[in-house]
Specification:
By secondary structure, this protein is an all-alpha fold. The protein is about 65% helix and about 0% strand. The protein is built from eight helices and no strands. Helix 1 packs across helix 3 and helix 2 crosses helix 3.
């Protein structure tokens, strides 16, 4: 769930919402939203649902994108993580292929991972 805040920030900015606006719509303080976005706080499931409603993204998709590969563990002989096949399988069931491009999500996940790694190196 460490990536949840980065996903929220990405979608919030995509909707041209400020932290103050999103926080007000979710009934929290901008300071708390800032902590969620920078990964220092993980909100309750109720708040996650509220945030998802406001930023208009399905909760299952947010939860799926928030999974850290390290949390899934290694599953094959090549020591590869199972994240990508899981993402592709679930998303293909959520969206028809002509409406959704998995490569866009894959690129987004890679950007979020890079940003997350960069942030952890700075600290």
């Amino acid at each position: 769930m460490k990536l949840f805040g980065k996903i929220v920030k990405l979608f919030r900015k995509n909707l041209y919402l400020t932290q103050v606006e999103l926080a007000e719509r979710c009934g929290i303080t901008p300071e708390y939203l800032s902590k969620i976005e920078n990964g220092s706080k993980i909100p309750s499931m109720e708040l996650i649902k509220d945030i998802c409603k406001v930023i208009d993204i399905p909760l299952p998709l947010v939860l799926l994108l928030s999974i850290d590969e390290k949390e899934l563990g290694k599953t094959n002989k090549e020591d590869k993580f199972v994240m990508k096949p899981i993402v592709e399988t679930i998303l293909s069931k959520l969206f028809s292929e002509d409406q959704f491009d998995i490569s866009v999500i894959d690129k987004s996940i890679q950007k979020l991972k890079s940003a997350s790694k960069s942030a952890s190196i700075v600290h």
